[in-house]
Amino acid sequence: MKRKKKKGGDEAGAPAWMVTYGDLMSLLLCFFVMLVSMSSISEAKFKKAVGSLLGAMGVMIMDSSLIEMEELPHTDRYDQEIERILDEFNEFQEFVEEMDLRETVEITETDEGTLIRIANPVLFRSGAATMTESGQRVLTQLAAVLLEFDSQVRIEGHTDNVPISTALFPSNWELSARRAINVLKHFNKYGIPGRNLTAVGRGEYSPLVENDTPANRAQNRRVEIFVDYKEKLRKQTDRGLIFEEVYDGR
Fold first, then answer.
1. Other C-beta atoms within 10 Å of 94: how many?
2. Where do the domains of the chain lie, and which CATH numbers do they carry?
3. Most Cβ neighbours (<10 Å): which of 25, 107, 136, 194?
4. Where are the alpha helices (H) located in 65-171, listed in sequence order?
5. Contact 117, 75 (CB under 8 A)
6. Predicted TM-score (pTM) above 0.70
7. Buried b or exposed e, range 109-146, using 16+ CB within 10 angstroms
């Protein structure tokens, strides 16, 4: 005698939790496949694709219609930029020589960039922080050079060890600081952004030579301008990419 099937029995098939578990495993598999594929992708091609995507979305400024990215060796790009900057300082050196200031304006390369050391007879008279006319001409020409590239500019004022005590300058610190600030203001007036400028008053405490003769004391009275651009340039060229924007109508 056959048994009758019970009504409402369970249907054949996998349990519901198996479906969710299977979906989870599929997603994990896709995730790891994607990781493997991305680990072998060309960085340059990936950045180029990202740049194209951003351009298509209108993210790039000035409505650029095309962005071309050329990958160059780090050292080649860095050397080219250094050479361009040094050419600018060579033109400034020629201007200094034309003004017959070779003995009082010194330009030196450093690990960070370029140091311009200017003796105070060029910029300031003894015991004063008002800039001379010749000093203004020198700094205006130097500002034109600094506008050609983005760099940090640190201005340091230095004095000799002869004490000063006036209503304006109670000590050599105030005198050196005011001179540095006046140089800073001159640069800012001629277009150097304030965010790139720093002024420091060193007073008598960083002499080049001993303050034991009038000639040595004159050598210590100076303003030093440090133009630090090499570290920033290294970081920029480490990417190895040059972005060129091509605009409509060009």
1. 10
2. 41-71 (no CATH), 75-235 (3.30.1330.60)
3. 107
4. 74-98, 120-123, 133-146
5. no
6. no
7. eeebbbbbbbbbbbbbeeebbebeeebeebbebbbebb
